[in-house]
Amino acid sequence: MGIVVVEICDGNIITDIDIEKIIEEEFPEVAVIESSCLSFCGMCAKRPYAIVNGKRIFAKTVDECLIKIRKQIQSELAIFS
């Protein structure tokens, strides 16, 4: 398990990309956990999002969301450096 955890809902459009592979290859200290539901049904249906160490990250597009996820991961990792 990583020191940073990224949670994604398997019903969210962020899963259109292989986010687990992308993030875990780029950041080996990060664990991506895909759940069947994260209890944000309204958000899940409307826009891509993820939860990074308990913080909701969302955007209008998958690419924008991935950029924001990376920035949040870097901020979280900076705490442990």
Automatic annotation (TrEMBL):
Organism encoding this protein: Halalkalibacter wakoensis JCM 9140
Superkingdom of source: Bacteria
Protein name: DUF1450 domain-containing protein
Pfam families, sorted: DUF1450
